[in-house]
């Protein structure tokens, strides 16, 4: 303790001393040590011995010293109280006091400032004090468990008041606290059995918070990893990607859970699986609890490339349950390969009220004005005049490496899988493929992995299928051969199912030649394709389209429709699907037309009874579309249909 | 022990003494105390000291006394056995015996009647005996855990025979037992480590059961809470509501689980959420286990306003699993906002065989003759010549307050939400709304809360979404602002989705004017509305109907139909939908017509191929319907479509 | 230890002694006992006493002896080192050594061979060594838990290295290990706290593995139970059934999990419920952990009578999660009442790469060439020139009795239920029914049980509904009356629902008389039956067909069709549905026809738009079909529709 910080609520409780010019006399707590005293300061003391050459006084149980008889102007007996000034701490530790004789002063009570132990350094058997931020407050049938995060790690502190009754009810999530207690071994992890738990307030809290903040910020710094390939277009968004990495690392350091929502297609899984693995590794390095990663990160596939109400509702309820039942902070929401569009805004607006930070890495055409203010971090190639060709999988492999650079060797083939799955025509594609080839993946196998991911995603439905997906993608998979066999199995089955769908549908395609010279194909998929199976209408349309492009070359437009939807694919034609939807909505009254997507690929919904009008109208628009050889549509799996 | 109850199996084991005229000599267990003896009774004794003025005899380790030499007619040595009669217990506790000289007698063995400790008073470290009813028998991998309920609480008693092997296999659920053992602290709760566990039989059991019963009945008494509003119509059903409250409280006191099934709409949630919260609070006050409420109460939404086979099957299987895996009693089934109709009878009949009590609070038109005998409690306004205008939510707010009166402040706005959600035209509505307004809810917000509940229920599907729903309804929610934002978010989204549905469907409504003057609107919702989204056909029909009523005023009938169903709404027309269904079934052969609902609102199912005939026939019937300005239909969300 | 096995890695570590002709001198570990020494062998020794008649030497802490002075040619002092030859172990245990004088030798280090304790004999408090095979390695937040299986049982061994860190990382699943440690009581079971854990390699491993293998094989021997009825046709497949029983018992003994997939119909449940119960009983007798059966066996219903991709994907992911999260071996897959057909091959091929053994008991028409090589065991009556009349339920009752013969009394009625549910016309049916009648089940009730199983399966969907199903089938159900009431409830409801479906559909059946004289009925079930309810189209077609057969007698063909499927039933007509499907596929271009089933019952899928062509073509084929009075179709519930 020093005179400077004596007023800190962490150290002592001072009267409001602003403008108080009276000298201060400190009243030390019994356990104060020599660290809590300093020369020149005044203390309340009690006589514990009278000798010829003076009196010995205690200012705490630990701190005593001599007032030399030359400083005394009266006699004292043991037990007498007086105020003293500390004159000097001698080299041998002896302390010399003088009597403090002023009768007007203010008393400041001083607690002993304990030595703080960093959480990473806790060992069973120690009696310690730690200081940190409350990351979780879980009420058990017995004690209340506080998870405390400091600069070095996170630990549980068990406080018992009464069975099932909340201990220290005034302490809340995110408070900065000091915890004193004994470190015990508990199910193999260490845990603090709490003796004291104080919420820091005012300056003490601010100071500690600042210290923690600086440390979190420091440890949150993303790893510096050279990009897998040199790619100028990609470099533009690297800084924003680092911001996401920093946010995620910091989220882990503070003990907040993370909920990942990703588009359930090849690119979406190439994006989310590496990030999940990197976060799991980082969580395990921060927490000493083997189950922490299971409790703190959850990856969930979404069928649509935007945040559907059903998912929002479930996520929100899950988050609230986690807080109610486990005393967790509400999770950070990480959207991968979806989340950039206006469709997502209402959900974000709501989550904002819930202290749920949101980060998005997406390559779907964004509505930056709409979403930007609501996001804590946002990466999207369109924000840098790039486009969907930089796939989310490519971005997230770099993101994963910024979180855990040791993953690099496991991830070299992933950007190529992502790019091929999303039919990216990025300049870097060949380099990514070479990179994968160097790891033993030829182009055919990379395509197969993408197909297998897509097929697995279809059958897993709302299940994350973590172990299976890791084996398919060969990330976090420990058996190369098993990976190969699994991919072959799934890809072969997927191809067989696609073949069956093609056999049924191809002969029913209706063809017309537009004036522009473009080939237009339409197919009623409800009539001519198997329903409720793989591939679904979106992918079926894509496969039919690809065949026709192969047959004729560009320009080709394909429309696959069902009772109340249509999927559009085009190559070499300048479409603007969002505008078309807008026009259709005006032209076809009571059609209930909605939808959109990218410019040249998308899906449209309408009411069943207006199908003919909508499709006819759509075909007319196609006839008016200009040709443009550079435009080709991305994988149709980017629709929810 | 007294001579009177010496034969109780709880205290001693008597030979069949009927007609046995021989005097009784009690053989006391070594731990019998002075409480187990009384003047005039005879005891087996042993000499433990010989003095000048007589001999000292022990009748148990704890009970000794003097046989005065004046009563002796021979000499005794230490260790000699004899029979004695207790003459007197003196004020200082000294006991005087006489020798019992008859040679013909019957011996009755007497166990010491231990002092019983009330469960609520157990403290770790005590050695105790408790007496209660077995509420659960859970076999763990180690000991067998018995949950014992007495007049004061419920506690776990762990009995160990062999790892994973059932201890005291003769003891069953509901048995009355006496448990002896040491109280230990276990995960923060107290638990008895069982030394002895005896099933009481015969009179002892009956007596204890009677005592427990009286205590349960007493503690089960519902709280006396003044009604939120004065409402004579409501007062008629208050007594029945108290019966339900009593049954539920008693169910908790006996440790039986409760499974709540409720209609998944606004009123159903306004009914079930407060009751769930009240029961959770009550459970926590009875059990010392923080997890108890999670294990003992489960709320589940049902899409239909009756007990569907899928739900019955699952509930029954769940109940049986709970018994098989956790040794729980089968749960009480509480049906809220559904359960009063004939459709529910077969399920109830089956559950009756399963020792699953059933309580129903509903305001759908009941079949009292059909269900009454099968229910343990039934509240329905139609049973008192009232009708659906007393909504289930209104009733259940009072029910919740009878279970936990401390909830009152949280619930004042709920009847208004329920009433508006179900379009109740009850006289008390304005008072309920004023009550809510006093809490800061204006009419608009109350409607929004109802809409938000409905919307959340739609997307949560079979999930109870507890935390989310509590926030929406602002019951058990600790953050007013979050509640408001959440309601706004959900209500706005709901309105947007309704708007989209209206845009699509409204222009396709077919209108005709019936001879009666009523407007009849029909719409093919499969053709002209979005499918598989919010709002579903039932609510869509309702919204279309409301618009037309607003436009024309009454009388209006609206029929929204799909491939194999039709939804009916009417205002100002005297319909009798159940009768119509009956007639249609006769008139339209092979139509498979079924359904029903209330008089003036309902849904009808038929086979797809007969739709035209059914709808035509329905329209004819509408043409014949009389007008009646007082009749208006309740929210159509009361159908499963 | 003997000279022979001194080189075993289990006992000592020998230099490569091939071709080394130098004599061996053993260097015994301090804890070696007299069991580790033998006459004629040489040892390193140290002098511990010098007496007149010689010197005492220690060859280990436990083994000492005398070198008689007659054998000494120089003097020794205490502490001197020398090499000795063991001459003789006298009757009183005294050992006589001679000095071993050769200066050229090789030293072999010898560890003490500890006494091994059989796992079944472990008792808390003992210090033991056990030897066995690693069945599971589960990393907890604290220690690593190894499940060790030896000849007598399975036990957990907890090894702690650091919290959450894998102990003995070199040890893998299936390794043979020796574990030393203290037996402690843990949650009521015993558990070894590991001091040492060594992987056996080379000969030691081979020897132990051989010993375990012989013991597993011995304990895996199926019980000898007399068949419930004498039935020559059945006897042909008994040996194969014993192979399945042996495989399953052995799987349990080795601690591998079992995943049962069964057709979700009456026969499939009559097959799987008894086998599940038998395996649970056997697991409990092998493991000392009450939860073991919950972790080690899972039964799952499948809607289709083959292994659908959705199920494969989920099973595989579940298996991988079990390994990743619980360190379990991948499960054995047991297919009951499905799994014999070519449709299953791709899934099996994939699982083969995953070390997942597969066993199949099925009575659907098999493709033995296709599946045989992929299965570890396969029983199907067609493999012995029998047919579907031997139902899977009949086979599995015998299988269950081979696993746990004590179940016999519970299962006597099950073959009759299975046979009636699958309309088996087996010769043994009457005997099975008599057997059931002797247990109090009349024919009507047996039919009801089958109907109730089917109904419950419908509503339980993907849930195994174990407790409910056990009660319905009265296997593992402890309350006869409850079983009866439950069956009545479900069967009555099922009949009512069937009746409603018949009422709607029957009048819409189209009839024509084929030239062959057969009656052909067709019905558009999408138009004329209720959809998405019980009974589904497959069963609806069957019920319609049965009525017509009853009405006309044979021959009758019934086709129930929907938008993109048709279900076929026939009696007295020689159909070959698989061939028809092949022909249709050629004749109807772009029809996407697939499907099949048995010869005379099956289902066909096609694209909606080609329905008319497919049905017309099908009817033509029916017209050409020959009559054959012996042919009748099995329950249509054997289709997934």
CATH topology of the largest domain in chain A: inorganic pyrophosphatase (n-terminal core)
Number of domains of chain A: 4
**CATH hierarchy, class of the largest domain in chain A:** Alpha Beta
Poorly predicted segments of chain A = 1-17, 635-640
Number of strands of chain A: 25
Query: What Rg of chain A do the Cα atoms give?
Result: 34 Å
Tally of separate helices of chain A: 18
Structure description:
3 copies of one chain form a homotrimer. With 641 residues, chain A is α/β, with parallel strands linked by helices. Chain A folds into 4 domains: 12-110, Nucleic acid-binding proteins (OB fold (Dihydrolipoamide Acetyltransferase, E2P), Beta Barrel), CATH 2.40.50; 119-219, Nucleic acid-binding proteins (OB fold (Dihydrolipoamide Acetyltransferase, E2P), Beta Barrel), CATH 2.40.50.140; 223-412 and 422-434, inorganic pyrophosphatase (n-terminal core) (Alpha-Beta Complex); 509-638, Diaminopimelate Epimerase, Chain A, domain 1. In chain A, the strands form 4 sheets. In chain A, strands 19, 20, 21, 22, 23, 24 and 25 form a 7-stranded mixed β-sheet that branches. The longest helix of chain A is centred in the last third of the chain and has 26 residues, at 480-505. Chain A is elongated. The termini of chain A are far apart. Chains in contact: A-B, A-C, B-C. Chains A and C meet through helix 12, helix 13, helix 14 and helix 15 of A and helix 5 and helix 6 of C. Chains A, B, C: One of its GO terms (molecular function) is nucleic acid binding. Chains A, B, C: This is RecJ-like exonuclease. Chains A, B, C: Residues 1-24 are annotated as: Disordered. Chains A, B, C: Keywords: Exonuclease, Hydrolase, Nuclease. Chains A, B, C: Residues 40-100 form the S1 motif domain.
């Amino acid at each position: 303790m020093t005179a400077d910080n004596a007023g800190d609520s962490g150290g002592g409780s001072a009267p409001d001393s602003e403008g108080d010019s009276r000298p201060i006399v400190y009243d030390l707590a019994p356990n104060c040590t020599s660290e809590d005293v300093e020369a020149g300061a005044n203390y309340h003391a009690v006589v514990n011995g009278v000798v010829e050459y003076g009196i010995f006084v205690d200012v705490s149980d630990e701190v005593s010293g001599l007032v030399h008889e030359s400083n005394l102007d009266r006699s004292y007996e043991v037990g007498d109280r007086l105020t003293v000034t500390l004159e000097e701490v001698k080299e041998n530790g002896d302390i010399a006091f003088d009597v403090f004789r002023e009768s007007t002063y203010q008393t400041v009570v001083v607690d002993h400032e304990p030595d703080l132990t960093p959480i990473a350094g806790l060992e069973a058997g120690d009696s310690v004090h730690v200081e940190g931020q409350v990351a979780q407050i879980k009420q058990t049938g017995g004690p209340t468990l506080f998870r405390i995060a400091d600069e070095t790690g996170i630990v549980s502190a068990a406080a018992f008041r009464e069975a099932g009754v909340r201990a220290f009810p005034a302490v809340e999530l995110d408070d900065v606290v000091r915890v004193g207690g004994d470190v015990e071994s508990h199910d193999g992890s260490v845990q603090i059995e709490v003796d004291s738990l104080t919420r820091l307030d005012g300056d003490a809290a601010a100071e500690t918070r600042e210290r923690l903040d600086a440390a979190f910020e420091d440890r949150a710094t993303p790893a510096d990893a050279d990009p897998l390939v040199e790619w100028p277009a990609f470099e533009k968004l690297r800084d924003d990607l680092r911001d996401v990495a920093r946010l995620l690392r910091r989220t882990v350091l503070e003990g907040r859970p993370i909920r990942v929502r990703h588009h359930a297609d090849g690119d979406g899984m190439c994006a989310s699986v590496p990030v999940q693995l990197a976060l799991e590794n980082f969580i395990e390095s921060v927490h000493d609890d083997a189950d922490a990663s299971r409790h703190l990160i959850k990856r969930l596939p979404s069928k649509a490339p935007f945040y559907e109400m059903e998912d929002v509702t479930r996520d929100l309820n899950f988050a609230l349950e986690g807080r109610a039942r486990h005393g967790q902070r509400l999770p950070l929401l990480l959207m991968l390969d979806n989340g950039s569009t206006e469709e997502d805004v209402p959900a974000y607006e709501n989550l904002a009220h819930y202290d749920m930070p949101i980060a998005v890495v997406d390559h779907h055409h964004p509505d930056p004005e709409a979403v930007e203010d609501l996001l804590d971090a946002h990466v999207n190639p369109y924000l840098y005049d790039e486009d969907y060709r930089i796939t989310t999988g490519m971005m997230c492999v770099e993101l994963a490496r910024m979180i855990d650079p040791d993953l690099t060797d496991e991830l070299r083939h992933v950007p190529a899988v992502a790019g091929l799955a999303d039919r990216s025509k990025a300049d870097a594609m060949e380099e990514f493929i070479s990179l994968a080839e160097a790891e033993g993946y030829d182009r055919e196998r990379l395509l197969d992995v993408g197909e297998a991911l897509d097929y697995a995603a279809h059958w897993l439905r709302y299940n994350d299928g973590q172990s299976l997906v890791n084996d398919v993608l060969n990330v976090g998979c420990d058996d190369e051969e098993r990976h190969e066999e699994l991919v072959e199995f799934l890809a072969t089955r997927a191809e067989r199912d696609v073949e069956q769908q093609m056999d049924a549908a191809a002969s029913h395609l209706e063809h017309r030649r537009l004036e522009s010279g473009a080939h237009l194909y339409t197919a009623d998929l409800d009539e001519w394709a198997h329903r409720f199976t793989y591939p679904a209408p979106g992918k079926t349309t894509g496969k039919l389209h690809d065949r026709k492009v192969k047959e004729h070359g560009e320009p080709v437009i394909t429309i696959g429709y069902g009772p109340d939807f249509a999927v559009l694919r085009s190559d070499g034609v300048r479409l603007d699907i969002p505008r078309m939807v807008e026009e259709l909505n005006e032209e076809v009254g009571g059609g209930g037309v909605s939808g959109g997507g990218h410019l040249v690929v998308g899906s449209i919904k309408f009411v069943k009874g207006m199908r003919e009008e909508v499709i006819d109208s759509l075909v007319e628009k196609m006839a008016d579309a200009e040709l443009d050889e550079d435009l080709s549509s991305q994988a149709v799996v980017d629709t929810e249909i």
